[in-house]
Amino acid sequence: MYWEQCALARRQANTISKLVTEEETVIEEESEILNLFKSKGVADSCKVLEGIDRMITQEDNKFLLDPFRKEEIQIALEGMGPTKAPGADGFPALFFQRYWHIVGQDVTDYCLGILNNEQDFGDFNNTDIVLIPKVPNPTQLVNFRPISLCTVVYKVSAFVPGRLITDNVLLAYEILHTINQKRTRKKGVMAVKLDMSKAYDRVEWKFLVEVMTKMGFACELVELLKRCVSTISYAVNINGMRGNLFQPSRGLRQGDPLSPFLFLICSEGLSSLMRIAKRRGLFKGTKASRQGPAISHLLFADDCILFGEASTVGAKILKDILQDYEICSGQCVNFSKSTVFFSPNTSEENKEAVSNLLGVRMATNPEKYLGLPNMVGRKKKESFQKLLDRISMRIEGWSNRMLSQGGKEVFIKSVLQAIPIFAMSCFLLPISLCKKMESIFAKFWWQKGKGRKGIHWCQWAHLCRSKSEGGLGFRNMAQFNTAMLAKQGWRLLENPTSLVARVFKAKYFPKSNFLNSQLGNRNSYVWRSTWAARGILEKWLIWKVGTGTSISTGNDAWVPDLVNSRLLSSYTSSNDSKVAELINC
Fold this sequence. Notes:
Organism: Gossypium australe
Keywords: Nucleotidyltransferase, RNA-directed DNA polymerase, Transferase
Domain Reverse transcriptase: 113-362
Number of domains: 5
Distance between the termini: 85 Å
Largest sheet: 5 strands, mixed
Pfam families: RVT_1
Number of strands: 9
Helix content: 40-55%
Structural class: alpha+beta
Protein name: Reverse transcriptase
């Protein structure tokens, strides 16, 4: 009886009683949802394509067109979440992973036929659409996110490895920190955060193909990607009722592993227009420091921030750019949900004029970007309070389930301790916040049931030891935070030509490298966070000697098996001498 009540409550919570349009018209026919996936036609895209350079070389195309191999199919399948929602055929990845010895050959042959021999996708490209609410108790269609449930066979054929999201967070925070400090100069700066309405669903296939061709992708690859997105059949699933199949004429599927990458290619159209305006001196963007690179926009999937001079001229140019992008790509900017943030030296008159011209509302503080705060003040614990709320909500959702201690261990490691990873990759969280997280974990670990406190038989620190040392291998959250930030510092050393590395170097260590950098004054929170982990790298990193032209004999660690890996010698040359001078001397 209890489980029946739980199932009934879940069904009632997930039931969509009605759907209405933005014009408050009740949606009664499936055809009204279908309109979202119908092409509206696009204008001539020559103006947008003008600023797109050929980026894909012959070597790149040769690599991309190499025949796919049997091993790659199995690797792609093994990289999928085993219990993620299945597609129209009802089979999750777990089925294929467990019974690969039976179905593996058939799946491999089918996928290789699609990838290498232009075989038709058939019914494996049929896709169910489910509406996931963005807000509690939604009724308007815009408050639902249409998620596509692709079949596992299609996902194997379209698998692409992951990307790094933190670069955009670091760049956005650094630029907004600089903007917020502009108080004396005459020219103000603005940051416009755009809300793209149903961005994936509005992508025009014709425009996508034109951009890929202009970028230099081989015709065979363009055709394969076009087949992936254009041979779809959708069926809308509402309240467990599957509708009729229909053919879309535009859009990318949220749930397709290819979609984020294809959307970035589509967004290259906006980047192109911004580059053209920048070359002509019409829209210059802004810098995090005087010697740093100018940045006019940051894009990650459908999240977009534009930076430029806060003036009516700049706003007019920006508006024209967005209109050109909309009519060519099919995208639609929701200006009513977009915001603009101004530097403190911008006059109130200018703020009002720019805001009205763009049709966006003014924000007193930069809004969140990619789920993380863009401005963290002295009350850091309050800025990250939502992390604690999310952890508590996850525990609340599972507290009624009779989890064993083994189940709790997996839940804490795989779910609860994974929640703050993204924030910890960018920010040094307060120690008190990390302790509070661990307190919540410990309370959940020892409790006997919902609302029933248990005895804490040992300290949490003991449980954080490895299993070989008598612990359970839980994470020490403060130490894990430092390790994640050290990874960011390592990327600054390993990829010095990346945009984020160039921005940080120009602002904080123009004449040295990250390991020899100083904290400095008027620094941002992301820099203080990354710099705080520098000691780990400084202690454990050691140079691998090649030519020795970049390694300082006295300042760099390069000799293995020494106490501090630094050379202490009576060699009379200056500390700026290089190891290359010692080779064959």
